Amino acid sequence: MKISYSWLKQFIKTDKTPQELSLILTNIGLEVESLEKVQTIPGGLEGLVIGYVEERVQHPNADRLSVTKVNVGGPELLQIVCGAPNVAAGQKVVVAVVGTTVHPNEGEPFKINKSKIRGEVSEGMICAEDEIGLGASHAGIMVLPEDAQIGLEAKKYFNVDDDYLFEIGLTPNRADAASHLGVARDLAAYLRTGFELPDVSAFKVENERLNIAVEVEDTDACKRYSSVSVSGVTVKPSPDWLKDKLKVIGVRPINNIVDVTNYVLHELGQPLHAFDAAKIAGKKIIVKKCAEGTPFVTLDEVERKLSAEDLMICDAEKPLCIAGVFGGIGSGVTEQTTTVFLESAYFNAVSVRKTSKRHGLKTDSSFRFERGTDPEITILALQRAALLIKEVAGGEISSPIADSYPVKAKPFEVSVKYQNMVDLIGKAIPASEIKEIITSLGISIVQETAEGLDLLVPTYKVDVTRECDITEEVLRIYGYDNIEIPSKVNASLAYTIKPNKENIQNLIADMLTANGFVEIWCNSLTRLANSKNEAEAVQILNPLSSDLNAMRQSLLQPALESVAYNVNRKNSDIKFYEFGKTYHLIEGKYVERPRLLIALSGAKQSEQWNHQATPSTFYNLKAAVDAVVTRLGLSSFQTTEINDENFAYGLKYFRGDKTLVSFGAVTHADKKAAGLKQDVFYADFDWAFVLDALKKNKIINKEVSKYPAVRRDLSLLVDQAVTFDELKTIAFKSEKKLVKNVQVFDVYQGDNLPEGKKSYALNFTLQDEEQTLTDKQIDTIMQKIITNLAQTAKAEIR
Fold first, then answer.
1. Distance, CA of 9 to CA of 595 (rounded, Å)
2. Which of 113, 160, 165 minimizes the C-alpha distance to 132?
3. Cα–Cα distance between 346 and 407 in angstroms, integer?
4. What's the number of CA atoms in the CB half-sphere (13 Å) around residue 557?
5. What's the pLDDT tens digit per position in 512-561?
6. Closest to 599 in 3D by CA, of 529, 522, 689
């Protein structure tokens, strides 16, 4: 939300600088995300001065140029070459002296330098209005009235003041601060000073020639509807002061009537809508819901099909406006408009939000209605707008204010106890200061006791309805920084269920990060088309877009989008991991499954002077998976190859019917869907099962053996179908106590081997932790392993 410093000072008198106010606003809960100096005229006319043309002669070397002598209040006259046909001696003009940067309406700003033009020295520029952003004319230089003071800064002559723009990150609960009035109200509470509402005492009904009846059919969706008519207006561009106010906060001026409604919206926080009264059929407004599918063309010239739940502003024949959201193209103000019907209403926040989402329309009005406006300000906003319209467009107020308000909104009744506030804040604030803060926020004290207060909270504070809300209001005005950190901190021991999920996750995250992996966080919302099991897809009832209409069933697709994003930006060497959840609809129940994904792509190591870049392979991914499994102490599991649609090829580690992790290469179809050509490898851990498996782990501490380990190697010829995992299992079953490790260090398939055979080279680590192994013991163990390999796996020793 954008707030103008100069506009803010119309409500509150303060000598605080913009920088000081920025800190105050942030401290009281209206966080200032940026503060910038802005100018309604680009460049702010800096460096421009009022000059007087003392002399003008024809340029000796150019028929269309003049050489002038100009007095700008300095000790000497400036010689300036000018090409304008209307320049003459005796004129008061605007001069850009040497060193000034000029900001024209079109083109880039440029700096004025001392130069020679066709052989004559030129020490500045006499300006046309379009060259300095003061108008659109380029017929000649600007000629000022005779009373213009020579040497006066142009910014002072044209009353161009610098302004400052606060960009406030407004939280959804602070609807009361969505205007200059709301921000000023908070500042006044902090500074313990007053603020001034706009003066509407001049409002009066001048005639009743334009009475338009109002009927509210749906009083739940429209709790208050106020209106007034103005006749005899002239639609034209707004005066400069109004356009400048809107341009500072980033609102594009349209015409004087629409600009007034936008001005009041940002000033008071109350959305208004202006109708061309001549286009209201039957001189009647009906607030109701239309039939399902009714076509309606909005101001952006898009035809929309209305829902039966959309609240509409209609006349006797047709809908005119989507209430609180967007106007219709057939009822808006145009240059031909002479009579205006002004609407100021209080719409149901939920109704407006649903309609806004349904049609994909986000406007300044819907932004405020969705968060909750003040039902008590509709009349003030109407009066303010009607007076401004008279000022900028002429006309007369031609009807009394019509006000449909069947059930008056009541202030919120809240009781607070001083002790409860102390318990929540952590500090005892004096009761007198609490009362002062409360009253400065516009909250009324109905009754006071020694224990606390009974309060009435005004209707504009839609989020203050409980004792804790009052406490927060007091605390933010008192100042969070004024709550001291105690020197003594009390704590209690908490029982944590083992294994600690957060600690385990952080342990693995730290390990992966230390090994060059980068953590990613992907959106849980994705396209329904990404769901490989659409029957289990969790679909969003009211999606933000068609690309975010379902919850993800796998971490893979969002991760591939992240890989593609990086690859497309020349960052093709990928090492990612993500802890996240997948979402499923199973037998009518919603299920969340925690997962860990690891992804590899590109080079495993970048090219250096002493080695070439080598691409990542399946085995690099397996090393990462094994590192995770080993770090967690998970050792008893089985291995098998994967044969499903999620992997081109791969392995899985499992226990019984539950999978710890599946890992392998991404399929061609998945890569194509993500726009990827290079190979991608990924691992998908069932993190819930991993944590469950950790519960069964037993940690045993033991001394490092002082007896040496022995290595023996075997070369085996086995069938193609035999896996290393099978051979490893046989070895451990042969000697459970003394065989400590089995590794494969070579696999060969090809020439000189029988068809259907392959060669494994394995090493076996043997160790007795109580004594040194003898050669006889080692030979006995190895012979037993060879026999079992031959019998079980049909292995032949080479």
1. 54
2. 160
3. 12
4. 22
5. 999 999 999 999 999 888 888 888 999 988 787 778 889 999 999 999 99
6. 522
The pair of three-digit structure tokens given for residue 797, joined into one six-digit string = 């020793």
Q: Which among 265, 258, 270, 288 is positioned nearest to 346, based on CA atoms?
A: 270
Specify whether the CB–CB gap between 433 and 474 falls below 8 A.
Answer: no
For residue 437, is pLDDT > 80? yes
Amino acid at 443: I
Q: Which of 339, 227, 321 is nearest to 277 (CA)?
A: 339
b/e code 696-729 from CB counts within 10 Å (16+ = b) = eeeeeeeeeeeeeebeeebebbbeeebbeebbbb
pLDDT at position 212: 94
Residue type, 199: D
Distance between alpha carbon 146 and the CA centroid of its chain, in Å?
Answer: 54
CA distance 150 to 33: 42
Please report, for the chain, how many H helices and E strands are present, in that order.
Answer: 19, 42
For 138-221, strand residue ranges (E) read 163-168, 213-216
pLDDT reading at 136 higher than 80: no
The answer to whether residue 471 scores a pLDDT higher than 90 is yes
Whether the Cβ atoms of residue 238 and residue 392 lie closer than 8 Å to each other: yes
State yes or no: cis peptide before 543, omega within 30 of 0. Answer: no
Element (H, E) at 595: strand 589-601
The per-residue pLDDT for range 759-784, each reduced to its tens digit, is: 989 999 999 988 999 999 999 999 99
| Predicted model pTM | 0.66
Angle between helices 467-478 and 180-191 in degrees, nearest 10? 70
Look at residue 649 and give its three-state secondary structure: strand
What DSSP letter does each residue of 465-491 carry, written as one string? -SHHHHHHHHHHHH-GGGSPPPS----
Question: At which residue do the structure tokens 């680590």 appear?
Answer: 765
Cβ neighbours, 10 Å, residue 154: 26
Q: How far apart (Å, rounded) are the C-alpha atoms in residues 430 and 48?
A: 56
Taking alpha carbons only, the member of 377, 221, 233 closest to residue 286 is 221
Specify which residues 179 forms β-bridges with.
Answer: none
Which residues have CB under 8 Å from 694's CB, separation 6+? Answer: 499, 504, 632, 633, 634
The phi, psi pair for 519, rounded to 5°, reads -80, 135
Q: What is the DSSP letter of 195?
A: -
Longest dimension (CA), the chain: 122
Q: At what angle do helices 467-478 and 418-425 cross, to 10 degrees?
A: 60
Spatial separation of the C-alpha atoms in residues 107 and 423, rounded to whole Å: 62
Structure confidence at residue 337 (pLDDT): 95
Question: What does the DSSP 8-state code read for residue 330?
Answer: T
Tokens of 724: 């290393």
Query: At 209, which amino acid appears?
Result: R
Q: What are phi and psi of 242, to 5 degrees?
A: -75, -45
Write the burial class of residue 653 (CB in 10 Å: 0-12 exposed, 13-18 middle, 19+ buried): buried
What's the start-to-end Cα distance of the chain, in Å? 79
Provide DSSP, 414-460. Answer: EEEEHHHHHHHHSS---HHHHHHHHHHTT-EEEEE-SSEEEEEE-TT
Burial of 631 (0-12, 13-18, 19+ CB in 10 A): middle
Four-residue CA torsion sign, 403, 309, 409, 475? negative
Taken in order 508, 514, 516, 519, the sign of the CA dihedral is positive
Q: Return the structure tokens found at 549.
A: 């209409």
The closest alpha carbon to 359, from 287, 291, 311, 288, belongs to 311
The arithmetic mean of pLDDT across residues 714-726, rounded, is 88
Handedness of CA 262, 268, 270, 276 (dihedral sign): negative
Q: Give the integer Cα–Cα distance in Å for 430 and 420.
A: 13
User: How far does Cα 135 stand from its chain's mean position?
Assistant: 37
Task: Please list the residues that pair with 574 across neighbouring strands.
Answer: 601
Question: If DSSP states are collapsed to H, E and C, what string results for 746-775?
Answer: EEECCCCCCCCEEEEEEEEEECCCCCCCCH
Pick the range with the lowest mean pLDDT from 52-66, 116-130, 317-331, 693-707. 693-707
Three-state DSSP class for residue 54: strand
Pairing of strands 658-665, 649-655: antiparallel
